[in-house]
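Let's practice the habit of predicting before peeking. Look at the sequence and jot down your guess about where helices and strands might fall. Then scroll down.
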Amino acid sequence: MTEDIQTRKKLLELFCRLAYKSGNFTLSSGQASTYYINGKLVTLDPFGALWTGQVLLSMLPPETQAVAGLTLGADPIVSAVSVVSAYENRPIPALIVRKQAKGHGTAAWIEGPQLPAQAKVVVLEDVVTTGKSAMFAVEKLQEAGYQVEQIITLVDRNQGGAEFYAEAGLKFASVFTIAEIQEFASQLKLGN
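Done guessing? Here is the structure:
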């Protein structure tokens, strides 16, 4: 196995052990679900953050000038990718998109370094259901003058997000699908 495949497998196991739960849940989209994935339990874990950064960095197009995402789920993800990129001698800054404009000072929507106009930014997300959260980040970044053509998520719940992004002309990729997580969790007898 290559290092990338091993890292991805370790990240998958961590998602199954820490983040995946069976039960009755209401998602941020308002939908009811029989399972829940709390990605922050993985992305805020020291090894989870490292492996997240390594896997996502390997998925970024070479021309990527920054990674960004909507607070709070994307905060540890974009930070992990940025730190790992520095260690890999491919420094990529991170941006965080607020859910509402800053209430003081500059009233900014976006936190992080100022990039050149038309900089190529990839939006990162922990879990995609309908796709609306990451799309909000895309819109704010585009309003700021950046080029956003791709969204990458750690987990795709396969509930319309990919189709939503395709309709908007955006490329979309996921590290894992929900089916992959559920299958691996059942092999580990986890999720309850």
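How did you do? The beta strands are 20-26, 32-37, 66-70, 94-97, 110-111, 120-128, 147-156, 171-177.
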